[in-house]
Amino acid sequence: MLQHILPVIFAVFVWWFGTALVFLLDQLPRRSFRWTMAGASAALVGALYGAVSLADDQSISAAYLGFACGVLVWAWGEIGFLTGMVTGPNRKPCPPGAEGWQRFTAALRTIIHHEIAILTLGLILLYLLWGAANQVALHTYIVLWVMRQSAKLNIYLGARNLGESMLPPHLQHLASYFRKRSMNALFPVSITGGTIAVVVLVQQGLGADPFTATASTLLGALMALAVIEHWFLMLPLPLDGLWTWSRPMAGQPQPTPASGPQHSETARLRP
User: Fold this and answer.
1) How far apart (Å, rounded) are the C-alpha atoms in residues 104 and 114?
2) Which of 63, 68, 8, 72 has the alpha carbon at shortest distance from 221?
3) What is the rounded CA–CA span in Å between residue 260 and residue 177?
């Protein structure tokens, strides 16, 4: 039983504490961002080295460490985005009245460098761990990448709970590119696919060897957290309180987003 309970606790802690830490770093003075990125880059190199070092290790501890390495690789992209150092060439609000392809391309140009960066990191992990016995780091990254893309598209198409206050001041222009709606056509697909993935991962871990049971439970817990976060997008429940303690600027008024529908992209360590 512990081989399933402990991975769930570990995954929840990494998700919650990691997100809070990223928000804390993001709220520091902008002059600190270069040091933050330097630290994140050092952690990235260490995580990639760790993932390769664990490639042939199928112990329980290697499953936990592989999971942590995957999260650290992902964290580099999120920190780069939240600090505004890896975003896109467009730093302006959505043009008034923009719809369809014009709105999509304008929105994409605000984040395209980040999209290229996280895709590149995923391909690097795939190359480094191709055929490896322990691919937990890669699988962790894939879960985060897939569900993060799903969350972005759901917010772009329209969601009820967008968490505007969690956008840092230097990314407030993103708020003009996303729609506030009670539902969109992609949401049921995202929830259904994510839930099926959770069930498959749980079943894969039941009765398996210790390494597979631990790895599958870690990934299943992470996917379940992603599904829960997707639900929060459509529920009128604020998420801010989960990480408010980490934000030194919490409680202070946030800059008002550009005119137009109130939108945002809440970039975080979550999927």
Assistant:
1) 16
2) 8
3) 9
pLDDT tens by residue, 42-77:
999 999 999 999 999 999 999 999 999 999 999 999
**Which tokens is 115 given?**
């999209």
How far apart (Å, rounded) are the C-alpha atoms in residues 94 and 136? 39
Measured from the Cβ of residue 130, the count of other Cβ atoms closer than 10 Å reads 10
Query: How far apart are alpha carbons 213 and 206 in whole angstroms?
Result: 6
Could you give the C-alpha distances from 231 to 15, 219, 228, in angstroms and in order? Answer: 16, 19, 5
pLDDT in tens, 193-221: 999 999 999 999 998 899 999 999 999 99
- The answer to whether 10 touches 261, Cβ cutoff 8 Å, is no
d(CA 238, CA 103): 27
Contact 220, 201 (CB under 8 A): yes
Which amino acid appears at position 51 of this protein? A
Residues 15 and 242: beta-carbon distance below 8 Å: no
Of the candidates 161, 162, 165, 163, the residue with the CA atom closest to the CA atom of residue 253: 165
* Residue 175: closest CA among 258, 90, 114: 258
Q: In sequence order, which residues have a C-beta less than 8 Å from that of residue 219 and are 6 or more positions away?
A: 67, 136, 139, 140, 143, 201
